[in-house]
Amino acid sequence: MTDVDAQLAANIEASLAEIAHPSLPKGTNLYGSTKLFPDYQAEEGQSYFTLIHGIPHESSVSFVAILQATRALRKGFETAIYFYGPGTLACSANRGFPTTGDAGFPGELNMNASLETYIAEGGTVYCCRFGLALHGIREEDLIEGVIPAHPLDVQDAIIHYARKGAIINSVYNL
User: How far apart are CA 157 and CA 52, in angstroms?
Assistant: First the structure.
């Protein structure tokens, strides 16, 4: 072992000894759990509408929007999610690597699985046909239950849900 290698080994040992690991045992609370607002449930006829314009697995924003829509559905809201632009990629049943349905990395298909759960529980999912065309996705490639929609429906869907007094959650990321 050279002098440099010996010094490097000593530095590594010193660095590891500076702070005890793990500093807290597994299961230690790091944050409080007090919920501030009431656990609101939907009142008769209330709607929750989500617009998603974000690439799957590139950001947590789109994924969290699906989770929020699912939670609203479980609270009794009439819910719908509308994917447009690059968001339409999340609606493809033909994602995966090396084969369809295989996650090439952990979390790659979390949006697909969450959408399937949302649809199975009664949620409505719209997907813009123009967004599909921009990314080479065919209608027959959609997750079962996803409804293809005309590009002009994006604006009219917003108007429809706004007139119903819906809570509108719009997420946009690239």
Answer: 13
